[in-house]
Amino acid sequence: MGVITRLCPYFRLTDAQLSPVYNLLKGDSDLKSPRTLTPEACQVLEEIQQAVSARQVYHIDLSVDVTVFVTTPDSHPTGIIGQWSDKWSDPLHILEWVFLPHQPQKTATTLAELIAWLISKCRQRMHILCRSSFS
User: Fold this and answer.
1) What residues does the Reverse transcriptase thumb domain cover (predicted)?
2) How far apart are CA 135 and CA 119, in angstroms?
3) Which of 16, 17, 49, 123 is a good FRET partner for 26, with 20 to 30 A between their CA atoms?
4) pTM here?
């Protein structure tokens, strides 16, 4: 939800539209506690899925730089490999989402180290994506 709320302006979703999903997060702080999806929350999740799919692209425009966007919801960095052009009707084209493992580290890791690890992982994926674009 943290990534989605930060990207709401690009997905053209408002906080009011997301409120049924936010309501699911209220209550028991235990993440494993059972939650029941309301019909309204199901509808919002479908709208989110459609918004993400609409901005997902399957090719790289070689005339536009490929960029890594990093968000840090809840101190867990997420990467978005994409392209941005003000010339497009929808300026953000998402090529791929990049996530770090959700398993806890055996050593203490700072947010800066996590971001560095994420950037390294994004660079590896970008090399593969760009190489396949030239094939």
Assistant:
1) 3-45
2) 24
3) 49
4) 0.59
Measured between alpha carbons, how far is residue 92 from residues 9, 38, 49, 104 in Å?
11, 31, 16, 32
Please give the Cα distance from 41 to 43 (Å, whole number).
5
Instruction: Specify the length of the chain in residues.
Output: 135
pLDDT, tens digit (0-9, with 9 covering 90-100), for 114-135: 999 999 999 998 888 777 766 5
Helices (H) and strands (E) in the chain, counts: 4, 3
Classified as helix, coil or strand, 99 is strand
Nearest CA among 75, 98, 94 for reference residue 83 = 94
Helix or strand run (H / E) with residue 10: helix 2-11
> b or e along 75-85 (b: 16 or more beta carbons within 10 Å of the residue's beta carbon)?
eebbbbbbbee
Q: What are phi and psi of 80, to 5 degrees?
A: -125, 115
Can you say whether the dihedral through the CA atoms of 101, 104, 106, 111 is positive or negative? positive
